[in-house]
Design brief:
disordered N terminus, 30% helix, 610 residues, 30 strands
């Protein structure tokens, strides 16, 4: 019957219309049926050139008509598409794209990225490589928050939280939806922010890139099948149309990039940047508003837990070692970047980790290195096209190379990612001036002062125009993501530290023996030994001395660490150079804190350097 059908089709002038049928193409590959190809070709030629072109057109038209038994979307077998998305959830938003992947598996997203996204590749580790385009980092100057009557008095307006009119937001939203409607395929991911069910929020991501969907699959908390079936309406929706620019002529827009947050409509719109980190930090910004409103401290910090249940929080800006130091083989990892402290304890906001990949080796960071496998996402890395091996030292694309992976890729991750009340608060700084001690014990007032200051330093070569160490102050160790005034977060931290008798420490992972260019970076071995001594309780038992100018209490000894490096002045070749540099940094601290003086207690103000 198959042969007769093929022969009938080939001699009826409909050959052109049916050659895309998979069963026919396969049949014609059978050697005994190759004679049909020749017969069909002759028949087709006669139909088109024997004075009956209208007949051929009629037959082709009939063959292309959708019948009651033909599916409206007939895709080849090799096309990875699953009609499992409830398109109604997008129709109500004005999005009418019909090819939608909803909470697709990593394998499916791999296939989609390889088919449709330039720069995608499966690496030798099994991880997926992705390229974010022109933007390889966040664009904090392009972040906007809509001013609305319900939240305008809560938000700390200024250079971090820039006002945006509701009309401009509507234009950006419409622009994003128009762009998404031009795409042949979209990806939706529904997940949770917050491991504690009592405080978690439902987040929906709508994007045109499989790379973005895989990223948020890793970074949000993945719902179970039952949770997904009952997900309902999200609390917040992120429209990622990052491949399409904002209109510079629109009121409030200063570039082609825009990340706009509207607390009233509970939406985020991304235009003009495909850097995946904008989605992650968009969610964090949302949580930094919602949680403190409920009396919960949101923290740009990592957290881990010892075998006895003791929890440590690590505050720190990018490059200070926050992710590295929290990944300790002797302690369970709660999370590497975003946490919240409630009346019940701490919980991770995220479902995954987003670690720097520059200079990554198994020897330095074995947990992170071994987490790079199938399901992980390597962003903007350089790799050998033949072998798939990554050169983690190559910065030709960006110095901000990153790897995203689910939390359970870390062997000693604690799941669910919830812990008790912290016993130790560690504030990390990368002091490129080389004057802060490797470790100092902070009083309650000093802890608030350094928390609000959020100090670290940039070094020469990391940015254009930076030729010497440059101090960077980021309130609460995460100013770009904080919505309330820093005092709001500081008050919550002080209250919880006092209530739970937590110790506070300032740890310098930066330079010793001189400033950048003269001294050298603190060894990871020494910093880990200091952290170990804090966790064991040994560091609390040793004798301390005061370091003048900064009035910091510094231990005279620490197990596993050369006592000489504990006092910075002893590591410099020139005492005069040390004192001059220390005075310079102290002045930078005081000048920065002037904008926070109003509303701070006398104790906090007195914790300032001399």
């Amino acid at each position: 019957r198959c042969w007769l059908k093929i022969l009938a089709l080939s001699t009826s002038g409909t050959w052109l219309a049916v050659t895309s049928s998979p069963w026919l193409v396969m049949a014609l590959r059978i050697p005994s049926l190759r004679f049909l190809r020749k017969a069909a070709s002759k028949s087709q030629h006669r139909a088109l050139h024997a004075g009956r072109p209208w007949l051929a057109r009629e037959k082709i038209g009939d063959a292309l008509k959708v019948t009651t038994t033909q599916a409206p979307h007939a895709f080849p077998d090799g096309h990875y598409f699953f009609e499992d998305a409830d398109l109604q959830m997008l129709e109500e938003l004005g999005i009418h794209t019909e090819v939608v992947q909803h909470n697709a598996s990593p394998g499916t997203l791999y296939n989609e990225a390889l088919f449709y996204e330039k720069g995608s590749a499966i690496l030798s580790t099994g991880a997926l490589a992705a390229f974010s385009g022109q933007k390889t980092g966040r664009s904090p100057l392009d972040k906007r928050i809509v001013e609305d009557p319900n939240t305008k008095d809560d938000i700390w307006w200024g250079p971090v939280n820039i006002k945006l009119g509701a009309s401009t937001f509507r234009i950006n939203r419409e622009r994003a939806i128009d762009y998404l409607n031009t795409r042949e395929r979209l990806y939706v991911f529904d997940g949770f922010a917050g491991w504690d069910p009592n405080y978690r929020y439902k987040i929906r991501i709508i994007t045109s890139r499989a790379y973005h969907a895989l990223f948020m699959h890793n970074m949000l908390i993945r719902p179970t099948d039952e949770e997904l079936a009952n997900f309902g309406e999200p609390d917040y929706t992120i429209y990622n149309a990052g491949a399409f620019p904002a209109n510079r002529a629109t009121d409030g827009m200063t570039s082609g990039t825009s990340v706009s947050l509207n607390f009233e409509s509970k939406e985020v719109v991304i235009l003009g940047t495909e850097y995946a980190g904008e989605m992650k930090k968009g969610v964090f910004t949302i949580m930094n508003y919602l949680l403190p409103k409920r009396g919960i401290l949101s923290m740009h910090a990592s957290a881990n837990e010892g075998k006895s249940g003791d929890v440590t929080i690590f505050f720190g800006l990018s490059g200070t070692g926050k992710t590295t130091l929290s990944a300790d083989p002797e302690r369970a990892l709660i999370g590497d970047d975003e946490h919240a402290w409630t009346d019940d304890g701490v919980f991770n906001i995220e479902g995954g980790c987003y670690a720097k990949a520059i200079g990554l080796t198994r020897e330095k960071e074995p947990e992170i290195f071994d987490a790079i496998r199938f399901g992980s996402l390597l962003e903007n890395v350089v790799f050998d096209k033949r072998s798939g091996d990554v050169d983690y030292d190559d910065t030709s694309i960006t110095e901000n190379t990153r790897v995203s992976y689910p939390l359970d890729f870390i062997p000693n991750a604690k799941l669910p990612a919830i812990g008790g009340h912290p016993q130790n608060i560690v504030m990390l700084t990368c002091d490129a001036f080389g004057v802060l001690p490797p470790v100092s014990k902070l009083s309650a007032a000093q802890a608030m002062y350094h928390f609000i200051s959020g100090y670290t330093a940039k070094v020469a070569g990391t940015e254009m125009g930076v030729t010497e160490p440059t101090a960077t102050f980021s309130a609460c160790f995460g100013a770009p993501f904080m919505v309330w005034h820093p005092a709001k977060y500081a008050e919550l931290l002080a209250e919880k530290m006092a209530h739970h008798s937590a110790d506070a420490w300032l740890i310098n992972t930066g330079w010793t023996g001189g400033a950048h260019g003269e001294g050298h970076r603190m060894s990871l071995k020494d910093t880990r030994a200091i952290i170990d001594a804090i966790h064991s309780g040994e560091l609390a038992k040793v004798e301390y001395e005061n370091i003048p100018m900064f009035n910091l209490q510094v231990p005279k000894s620490c197990p596993g660490v050369d006592p000489k490096i504990l006092t910075p002045s002893k590591t410099w070749a020139s005492q005069a150079a040390y004192e001059e540099t220390a005075a310079k940094l102290a002045k930078l601290f005081k000048d920065n804190f002037k904008k926070y003086e109003e509303g701070c207690s006398a104790d906090i103000l007195n914790a300032s350097p001399e």
